[in-house]
Amino acid sequence: MPRPVPAWLPVVGFVLIWSTGFIVGKAVVPVADTSLFLLARFALAALLFLGLALAAGVAWPPLAQVPRHLLAGALMQGVYLCAGYGAVAHGMSPSIMALLGALQPLLTALLAIPLLGERPSGRTWRGLGLGAAGVALVVLPAMRAGAPHTVSPLVLLIGLLAILSITMGTLLQKTSIARADIRASSAWQNAGALLVAVVVVGVTSATSGGFTALRWTPGATLWVTLGWAALVLSGLGTWLLLGLVRRGQAAKAAALMFLAPPLAAVQAALLFGDRLGPVQWLGMAVAGFGVWLCQTQGSARHAEAR
């Protein structure tokens, strides 16, 4: 009889995988237009989950529920990534985008109260606050290095749209679509993200001189990055995230994202030679302690998934 999977393994796996999204975003810029890259990523991920669902013979969600699955994927991946990559491409520094991302667990906790009936405890709120503070410390040196740097209000709004969209997409995972098999749901959700990317590619090509004007440079960097993004980030990473959200409070699952920027900073130091200072190490410790507070609290009230 196989041993049950340790409860900590999906958590560690998700955090390690999710943190590589920052590295993927940095690596793909020289070789591909981000909107075209995301279109290919979502298409491959949708095919991956379609194949897994068909091979396992799982039940597909009723047609009446399909729009919810499409919307959840469009928000959680499509709008989030297209807007986030777009904001960085139009002048927002990755450090500021990471700082905005620290608002997502806090926003998730706030909106989960009226929308899901989940009420985080005081301990969880303190953990969320420490997590956000830790992320701020991690990205502070990068923000200082990029100063003075002005971002247009439109670009800032695009960055905020990215955070709002992944928040609403996360909360949708706790509604009736949680009853569907994750493989079938993920196939539809990546299809929803794909639709967003198709629109963005269309707009981008129309404003840049046509589809052929979009950057796409085949090579090892592009194919390895695309394979990782589609199969590991949108595949395994999203599957782990959906499982964590379905099994617990949305705020507690979202709090794990506080660990992504610190881990990305370590990866950037190893891969790109970025330096880590004492402030960043302190930020990692603070963020880690905040996440620990969130994950070790079990007395908050939950509402059943609707």
From TrEMBL:
Keywords: Membrane, Transmembrane, Transmembrane helix. Residues 12-139, 156-293 form the EamA domain. GO terms for cellular component: membrane. It is a multi-pass membrane protein. Its main location: membrane. It is found in: Membrane. Signal peptide: none annotated. InterPro entries: AA-Vitamin_Transporters, EamA_dom, EmrE-like. It comes from the Bacteria. Pfam families: EamA. The chain crosses the membrane at residues 7-29, 35-58, 70-90, 96-116, 128-147, 153-172, 193-214, 220-242, 254-273, 279-296. Belongs to the EamA transporter family. This is EamA-like transporter family protein. It comes from Cupriavidus agavae.
